[in-house]
């Protein structure tokens, strides 16, 4: 059976998955090499600053490669660009966090970041965004402040005076 007469779900590789794989494998290789060359890796027992970025880039690369061989259903939507609003909100989220973490603290920075970035979805409602922001903030405070004891203040200079 020639490739032209095959049904879309019977193809060995889909163009959509290969595109995704190429983008994320390139990203993982660049980040992994950069972290390996510029940061101390250390060992699993005594991790350096580069250990996590290198391991994360390796995992991302393997996950991306696995996607290349995942079949797409016949009814899958074609790839399309995200809206400008969604792109700005998602790309602006780290900026919101970076600008607010010192002045407002962990609680307010995470809540604001999650609240605003949740509106990148066209299905987001005010209630869902508030619940997501509260839930994720509680999770982040529990993990980063209480469990990991990271020296991040819960409340920033603007709030504590």
From TrEMBL:
Superkingdom classification of source: Bacteria
Span of domain DUF1468: 21-153
Entries under InterPro entries matching the protein: DUF1468
Pfam families: TctB (PF07331)
Entry keyword annotation includes Lipid biosynthesis: no
Tagged with keyword Transmembrane: yes
UniProt keyword annotations, A-Z: Membrane, Transmembrane, Transmembrane helix
Transmembrane intervals: 18-36, 48-69, 89-117, 129-148
Descriptive protein name: Tripartite tricarboxylate transporter TctB family protein
Organism expressing this protein natively: Neorhizobium phenanthreniclasticum
